[in-house]
Amino acid sequence: MAQSHENLRVLVTAAASGIGRTIAQAFVENGARVHICDINSDELQNCAAELPNIGASLADVADPAQVDQLFQDALQNLGGLDVLVNNAGIAGPTAPVEEISPADWARTLAINISGHFHCARRAAPILKANGSGAIINLSSAAGLFGFPNRTPYAASKWAVIGFTKSLAMELGPHNIRVNAICPGLVEGPRIDRVQAAKAQAEGRTLAEVRDLITRQNSMRTFVTATDVANMILFLCSPAGSKISGQSLSIDGHTETLRT
Q1: What is the pLDDT of residue 239?
Q2: The three-state (H, E, C) secondary structure of 209-256, written as one string
C-alpha cells in the first residue's frame, strides 16, 4: 500500500508539543518537509532545537494577521504547500453553561474553529494553484456527541465537522480533499488537565474520573498521538487519495460523553 510522503510540503498548527508535534515529526520521518507554528515561544524554541529540519513560527491562529505572517514564513521555508493540518485547539472551560464567561466562550471558538478558517482561507488558493492537496481538520469525539459542562469545546468541534464537509464540497472539484479527525481520549498533558478540571468540578478523585471516562468507549482505552498521526499520514498518502468529506474517529468506539 503506497504511502509516500517524500518532499510533501506540510504546515501543522500548534505543533511545538503534544499531538501536533507527533504529527509533524511523523511527516518528517516519512520524507516530508514541514513547517509548524505555536503560541508558546519556549516550546517552539525547544522543538526547533530538537527537530532542526522543521521550520517554525510563533503564531496565534485566532489572529488573522498572525496567520498571514505564518503563511509568508511557511511558503518561504517550504517553497509551496501541499498539506495543511489544522491542529490548533484548546480544551476551554469545564463548567455549567451559566458559569462560563463570554470571554472563555469566545476564546475557545476563536481558536478551535475560527483558527481553522483563517488557515484554510490562506491555504485554499495555494492548493487550487497546485491542482491538488489535502486539509486535515482536528475535531474530536466531542464533535459527534453532546458533552455536558463542556459546551464551548463541543460547539467548536461540531462546527469543525460542518466546516470540513462544506469545504470538501467546495474544494473537491480542484482535486483537494478535506477531512476531519475525531480523536477520543488521547493520552498526554491535555487530557490530564481535562480530567483534573472534571474531578474538581464534580467532586471526584482523579482515579474515579479516569474510570468514568474510559467507560465511555467500547475498548475501554485511551489512544495515543501516534494513532492520530498515522491516520493523518494515511489520508495524505496516495492510498487516501479518494477519501474526502469524512469525519474519521480514532477513539476505541466512543459510546457516549455523558458521565
Answers
A1: 94
A2: HHHHHHCCECCCCCECHHHHHHHHHHHCCHHHCCCCCCEEEECCCECC
User: How many angstroms separate the CA atoms of 200 and 149, rounded?
Assistant: 12
Going from N- to C-terminal start, the domains of the chain cover 9-186+224-250
pLDDT at 195: 80
Residue type, 215: R
Q: How far apart are CA 20 and CA 90, in angstroms?
A: 12
Per-residue confidence (pLDDT) for residue 198, from 0 to 100 = 77
Q: Are 82 and 128 in contact (CB under 8 A)?
A: no
CB count in 10 Å sphere of residue 210: 18
Residues 6+ apart with CB under 8 A from 200: none
Q: In terms of Cα–Cα distance, which of 144, 93, 132, 90 is closest to 244?
A: 132
The C-alpha atoms of residue 12 and residue 54 are separated, in whole angstroms, by 10
Dump pLDDT digits (tens) for 28-80: 999 999 999 999 999 999 998 998 889 999 999 999 999 999 999 999 999 99
CATH topology of domain 9-186+224-250: Rossmann fold (3.40.50)
Are 13 and 87 spatial neighbours (Cβ–Cβ below 8 Å)? yes
CA nearest neighbour of 124 among 93, 185, 169, 162: 169
For 14, left (φ over 0), alpha (ψ -120 to 50), or beta?
left
Residue the block writes with cell 474544494: 171
Among 71, 147, 153, 222, the one annotated catalytic: 153
Terminal-to-terminal C-alpha distance of the chain: 40
* 164 is an active site residue: no
- 151-205 per-position pLDDT tens digit: 999 999 999 999 999 999 999 999 999 999 999 888 877 778 778 887 888 889 9
Beta pairing partners, 138 = 181
